[in-house]
Amino acid sequence: MLPSGPTLRHALVIGIDGVRFDLLGQDTTPSIWAFGQAGFLAPVTIDEATPTWSGPCWATIVTGAGVAGHGITSNDLTGHRLADHPDFVTVATRAGLSTLVAVSAWPPLALPEDGGPLFAEATRREFVARHERSLAGWDAADEATTGLAAGILAEDGPRLSFVYLGAVDIAGHLTGAGAAYRDAARAADRRVGRLLEAVRSRPSYEQEAWTIVVVTDHGHLDQGGHGGREPEVATAWAAAAGPGIDPGGPPAVTRQDQIAPLVLAALGHPGP
Ligand SMILES: [Zn+2]
Fold first, then answer.
1. What pLDDT, in 10s, does the model give residues 57-98?
2. What spacing in Å lies between the alpha carbon of 98 and ligand 1's midpoint?
3. Would you say 146 and 84 are in contact if contact means Cβ atoms under 8 Å apart?
4. Which among 64, 89, 66 has a CA at the least distance from the CA of 13?
5. Which of 72, 133, 212, 270 is the residue whose CA sits 20 to 30 A from 252?
6. CA distance 230 to 52
7. Ligand 1 center to residue 75 CA distance, Å?
8. How, if at all, do strands 8-16 and 208-215 pair?
9. Which residues of 81-92 are buried (b: 16+ CB within 10 A; e: fewer)?
10. What SS3 state is found at 125?
């Protein structure tokens, strides 16, 4: 049955920092795996011109511009050209849509620190746990960010939301790509499941058109760390599902700079 009123388009992007592609599967990440079955889940090779650090990779993902455009080459965003290449949340906010940025523990995404914020404008901005250092602290910050974002998604349902979880990357840096890293990925996957469930719990869900993206920025070496061109580091991934995305069809994203156009197109915006 067709909805009686106009269908309101929504988008949710869940960014999980530093999750190796070879970690994904039914055992470790069942929520992400099942989500990919509803659309696509595919490896994304980081462009040769993009250092495999969080700053440049996330900047490319959220702006659709490469390093030559946004000008970010490290985790210090100072000197960026984001005014010329704004992030998708800022673009949507300026177009009059309600937006949310919910960020766990890495300041420059959300705050004017280290050259940030990456996200210039948002209707609502939530930043949980300033300057965490320990894995337990990051895990708690991710948990709090998830709870906060799930509540906002279920009740307010912003037209575009970006939720950032960072504990998996910290586990990789502190312990390498072993058991603790896998446990952190399991926890992140459960949080993805909670966010998806929050969206589906909306009383108006059946009358809404949701495009959802789950994406990482880079991988990790076996011993932990990134920044180079090793396949386990330079292979990121993205999953997406929603109207216009064929389940099991060819992936609509094979490059990091294709995500922002996909998100904005899903909202009916011509793009960056
Ligand atoms: Zn990262």
1. 999 999 999 999 999 999 999 999 999 999 999 999 999 999
2. 27
3. no
4. 89
5. 72
6. 10
7. 9
8. parallel
9. ebeebbbbbbbb
10. strand
